[in-house]
Amino acid sequence: MTHSLDEVTPLRWRAAELADLPEIHSLLTAVSAFDDTTQRWGPEELEEWYSATGDLASDLIVIGFEGGSMVAVGWNVTETSGTIRLDGAVHPAFRHQGIGRRLFQWQLDRARDWFLAFGDAPEVCHLAFSDAPMTNKRSMFEHAGLKATRWLIDMVCQFPLTSRVAEFVVTPVLGVRFEQFSDRWVEPTREAHNAAFADRWGAQPVGPQDWIASLAVEHARPELSWVAIDELERVVGYALNSSASEPGGPSVGWTDRLGVRPEQRGRNIARVLLARSLDSFRRAGKDAGGVGLDSVDGGGTTLYRSLGYEPTDTIIQYELHESREQARAALDN
Questions:
Q1: Is the pTM of this model over 0.85?
Q2: Which positions fall inside the N-acetyltransferase domain (predicted)?
Q3: At what angle do helices 21-35 and 43-53 cross, to 10 degrees?
Q4: Does a structural domain hold residue 303?
C-alpha cells in the first residue's frame, strides 16, 4: 500500500507499529547526537507517546525508509482536546531534499483531521519545538504559519562563585528575613507561588495535592531551598531547588521554582534567594547552579546574568491556532 508522502518525497513511507520503536529510538538518538539537541527521547518516553495515540497510531505516526533503513519519523501527540504536539526527525544525510517540510505539512494536515473528527475545543493549537540554533527547522515552522511564543532557556552558573553572589548572600531586605525551606512553609509557599504567577498569562493555580507531590519527587532538595518571610510571617518569595547529575558529568543544583509576590518585587528578594541557593549548592559539593527561564520573547536574563549565570540551551516553542473553519479551509487548499 502506498502512502501520500511517497509521491512528494524520495522515501517510502508507512505507519509506525509498536515493533518499530527500538529502530525509531536509534534514529532519534543518532539525530540528537548530530544536532546536539537539548531534548533526548528515551525508550520509555517513546512507548508513552505511542500508547497515547491509541487506535490512531496509524494516522498520527509515520516512518520513512531509504531501502531498508529508517531515515525519518514524524508523530503527533494529542496533549489535550485542543492541543496537538508535532515532533519528528530526518536523518542528516537526507536533509535539504524537502523531506522535512513535506513531512511537517503531512503532520499538520493529520492534526487538523484529528481535531475536526475528535476535538471538542473551539480551536486547535498546533505545538512544535526547536532548539534555537536549528535555524532551518525554525524556518520550516514559520513557513507553515507557526509563530514563536515562548523561549525556554537553561542558564548555568559555574563555580567558583562570583563576588556578586557572596555580596547578595548577606544583603539585607528591610522587613524580610530569609530561611531555609522546611515543612512549616509548604502551604504558605504554595500560596505565594499562586500569587506570584497569578498575573502570568495561561498560568493556573496549583492545588495542595499537586504542590505536595511536586515537592516529593526524587530529585527535590528542600534542604537546599530558601524562602523569604515578611513581618506578618507570610512567604513573599521562594527558591525551590533540586539536584541533577549525569554519569561522568557535572553535579548541578537547579532552581526549579522561583517567585516573588507582586507587591514585593523590585527589592532584590529574587536575587538574594538565587545567591543563597548558589551558595547552598556550593556547600553541598555541586559543580554549578542552574535555572530554567520561561520567557515570552527570549529576554529576561538580566537578573541571572548579574549573578554569573550564562545561557547554555534554549528551546523555542512555536504555535499555530486555528478555528474549525480555518482548519477545514487549510485542508481544502
A1: yes
A2: 11-196, 187-333
A3: 120
A4: no
CA–CA separation, 39 and 315 (whole Å): 9
- Residue 55, pLDDT score: 63
pLDDT tens, residue by residue, 41-80: 888 888 887 887 766 666 788 999 999 999 999 999 887 7
Neighbours of 324 (CB within 10 A): 15
Statement to judge: residues 141 and 164 lie in one domain: no
Instruction: Give residue 300's identity as a one-letter amino acid code.
Output: G
Q: Looking at the structure, do residues 238 and 135 belong to the same domain, yes or no?
A: no
Q: What percent of the chain has pLDDT over 90?
A: 81
274 in the same domain as 186: yes
Burial of 128 (0-12, 13-18, 19+ CB in 10 A): buried
Average predicted confidence (pLDDT) for the chain: 93
Query: Which grid cell is 61?
Result: 505516526
Determine the Cα–Cα distance for residues 125 and 81; give it in Å rounded to an integer: 10
Range of the domain at 233: 160-286
Closest CA to 282 of 250, 310, 259: 250
Distance CA 223, CA 203 (A): 27
Taking only the tens place, the pLDDT of each residue in 118-158 is 888 999 999 999 999 999 999 999 999 999 999 999 999 99
Local structure of 254: helix, strand or coil: strand
Question: What are the grid coordinates assigned to 186, written together?
Answer: 509548604
Q: Which residues of the chain have pLDDT under 70?
A: 54-58, 202
Q: For residues 106 and 140, is the Cβ–Cβ distance under 8 A? A: no
- Residue 283 identity: R
Query: 178 and 75, same structural domain?
Result: no
Pairing of strands 147-158, 176-180: unpaired
Tell me if 302 is assigned to some domain.
no
Residues 16 and 139 in one domain: yes
**Whole-angstrom distance, CA of residue 229 vs CA of residue 13:** 59
51: cell is: 500508547
Q: CA quadruple 125, 130, 135, 140: dihedral positive or negative?
A: negative
**Residue 212's CATH number:** 3.40.630.30
- In angstroms, what is the C-alpha Rg of the chain? 23
